[in-house]
Design goal:
Four copies of one chain form a homotetramer.
Chain A: E1 9-13, H1 20-33, E2 38-40, H2 42-47, H3 57-63, E3 66-71, H4 73-83, E4 90-94, E5 104-105, H5 109-117, E6 122-135, E7 138-145, E8 148-153, E9 160-166, E10 169-176, E11 178-182, H6 190-193, E12 198-199, E13 205-211, E14 221-224, E15 229-233, E16 241-245, E17 249-252, E18 258-272, H7 278-285
Parallel strand pairs in A: 1-2, 1-3, 3-4, 4-5
Antiparallel strand pairs in A: 6-7, 6-18, 8-11, 8-16, 9-10, 9-15, 11-13, 13-14, 15-18, 16-17
């Protein structure tokens, strides 16, 4: 059980969601009755139509003890990349159906908040991935991600060749549509569609999953999170390759570029309600059928 | 056994292949000794450095009784698309390792030609696929292909939605990286990497293989070659989708575009040597280990 | 549309089904009102508790123009093996949820029968598989099956080796838990769980699907139904191998035994209602989500 | 680098291996020249035809500082189960081709021994799995395994139902041919054939891999080694289920039996030569093609 008292709440909402206004009013009314100060990001403030001033997300992350995210897994992913260093706990409420990361439904929102404010919750610390892009020996960018990075080819190229080294030792050269490096949290996202395993979010590991590999025995590999993974594109195939971060940010790559992946020193702190567990969400999302 | 007498031979060579010159000289010397007239495409003529005038491939296809293709499977695919209506038999000689389509190695070339000229060969008629692209109700293009068509997303889009109907009846909407429609010949190319089955080249069938489908139960489907398959892109995802033909020709697609796939009325006639069979090539290419 | 007049109906019911009695009374009352004579197998007669005399299934097959099967896909499979030579159309009504073969639900039963009696139905002719077991050169048994045959190892053996030849030519030796030869109809049964493709039931083909093969490139192979497939067990691994027919009949195999698979000269004639199609059933059974 | 001095060597050999005699003589001559005392198990002593007295394997494990295993991965697996508590380092020499566990080839044997005796080696500590079988609340047996346990059905049963709980919480009920719980070391054995990922041997994890699951979304799951996994067979399917340990020991299961899997407190200490690494073996065994 977590015990820090929650004094201030931040609210982030996916912009232009159809029912966001009604839900935000329910949420903010509840917080007002409890006399809990709160701050809204531009998405939430706009849904409330001016009843509350908007703060930037970055400003909110620095002054709250709990962040409520109203949206889908995509919204939470984009929050995670920025909030991680602050260690602020994040509660994901799904505006649509159930998500892997936003596992509280609208109907459960207020009941869940009541539990959280009485200290009846747990924190699931999810490891994140640091990806650094190097060009000509210089670091171009540095990213902290919750789900995955993907190196993949453009639609018109048939195959690319990606050389992988782990802790400085050659693993193999994948001839494939692309390659995914995912965290345990990201294992149920793109990696699963590409044939990867489900990895429990408490694990500290990466999954290296090739996308449509030419060599059929190139199967997904799970490695410990302590390793350093280096990816480089073979020169002849460089011009049509992109680096995609959490499926949201795309960076075109050039000949000789190198991507280095390690475990990030930050984690995301997800609020979890006792009684709602990982395997229940998995069973539901993958339609396994119940007990 | 095939019996038509071969009077004229066409030679097509992949341009800029390292050993092409030596091989072409071996081949043309052999033909001269046999007093068989032959015609060279620009790739072959250039490798012979002016010893023979170049004809256009299209001109060659109309005047020969046998076409020898020196190259890899890619070279043969591009020939197949144009030569199919002429029914000219095609003998594929692989300049590198063994191919699925170019199953004669350099060492076997002359011995194989001797068999062919003495009538000791068989024709493997491979079905081809007709793909027509429609925009706003008008047909934009019409293609005849040996391997496959692929609808896929650009590197930066995460997922697209492709609606499939067979003989006018809704099958499903694939949320995926893309979708492959392959012939039996194409089943061992891209479709295999995406999880599709191996389909014997004598079959008359299409394989509908989704690429990294979001719905894990979207498995490859084999349908008879008599059907008409209609593919359409859901509007919201239209701008990043490409149609790729035999992995060689790319066409950007627009909102509302539709692709219709049927069996082509043309087939490619591949020359095959008795004793070298499909399963032997398969065993070798997939490293199954032998008897 | 089918046009033969239906004069006599046979009813076969899975024994001991919970709701069979109520359903059978609904069905038999409807037939009596229509003045259609009918015959019940022991399962159906027992559910009706003596209101109708039982005939053997074999006797029924010889005197009816339509057979109604109340049960699951398993019941229909066992009927198919015997009724095929008579060409009597079979209508499968599922006592539980929807089946691949029993695609009429209880709620649709009477409405469907009304359509069938007014000639508004189609016949889906499904190819069947003939499997013959040879020992020491002598034929031990001869089976006609709708779904599949499986050669597999006992629980305690780790791996067996099965040599496959097609039309007398060596394909490969599978080192695996077992091997499935399925018809298109059987492709959505065991073969699908083992990684095989979905094959449209109008196809005339076999799928050769290895179960947990040691060689990872041993992928499922689809071959035309004209071929003859020979399976033999390598001697050292003979004592723990079983031949299973349609998942229902098991035969222990001995050293040197050989199984020969061909297309059966019989087909099963399944009654289908226009408007309910294969892909609708598939979408429902595999939970693809609808339009 | 490991530093304990090696005073005594044990030798275990797979019985009846064709070239064992020549290899053992080479090995024992080398040890004699180095004046290193050694002990032979019955397999090794018999290959040496009486030149050396046989000790039981158990006796050997208690008095040596290094065990050399001559055989395949199967031989090493059976040694691992017994030697683990002693922490004696094990060097696997493969009598045939390269193995995942016996990664020293015959040609490298003496050179490798020389490195080991000069302290130039590393120990790869591989986690093991403890499996306990309970019947009617009483523990029937307790096993320590290096690769995997498998619950599977007999050849004649079509499907079984296995309920899995992790740390006391329900995960799902698998309807499948069986279920594998593998260690990282075992991930490249049976689990890989059943569709599981490759897990780096330094990981501390289990992989739960269903065999031919009826529900296609039942994908392999990787969980941390700290968990307790409980497996139980649904009553109706009990009589045809077997528990198989490392693919070598089979135990018939009864209705209501339960298997509990945890990380063993023992590990196997494998001797590894610097410069020969996990990914090199993997690349070779899976025929990925080299650099």
């Amino acid at each position: 059980m977590a015990s820090n008292r929650i004094r201030r709440v931040g609210i982030v909402a996916k912009p232009h969601s159809p029912h966001a206004r009604a839900i935000l009013r329910r949420l903010t009314d509840w917080l007002r009755r409890k006399r809990i100060p709160f701050h809204c990001d531009p998405g939430a403030a706009s849904a409330l139509r001016g009843r509350k001033r908007a703060d930037s997300r970055q400003a909110i992350y620095r002054k709250v003890d709990l962040l409520v995210v109203l949206g889908g897994d995509g919204t939470l992913l984009s929050v995670a990349r920025d909030i991680a260093p602050t260690k602020v706990p994040v509660l994901g409420v799904n505006l649509g159906s159930l998500g892997f990361l936003t596992e509280v439904t609208l109907g459960e929102m207020l009941e869940t908040l009541a539990l959280v404010f009485s200290g009846k919750y747990e924190i699931s610390r999810r490891m994140m991935l640091q990806a650094r892009l190097f060009r000509a020996g210089r670091q171009l960018s540095d990213h902290c991600l919750l789900n995955d990075i993907v190196l993949n080819k453009s639609a018109l190229a048939r195959i690319i060749e990606i050389e992988v080294a782990i802790d400085g030792r050659y693993v193999t050269s994948y001839r494939a549509d692309g390659l995914i490096i995912s965290t345990p949290t990201g294992s149920t996202a793109y990696s699963l569609s590409a044939g990867g395993p489900i990895i429990h979010p408490n694990m500290r590991a990466f999954c290296v999953t090739p996308i449509c590999p030419h060599t059929l025995t190139n199967r997904p590999i799970v490695v410990p999170s302590q390793v350093t993974i280096d990816l480089s594109i073979r020169k002849e195939s460089d011009e049509d390759v992109f680096l995609t971060l959490d499926g949201q940010i795309g960076v075109p790559m050039k000949s000789g570029d190198r991507v280095q992946v390690r475990r990030s020193r930050h984690s995301i702190h997800l609020v979890q309600i006792p009684g709602k567990r990982y395997f229940d969400v998995l069973r539901n999302k993958l339609k396994w059928g119940g007990k």
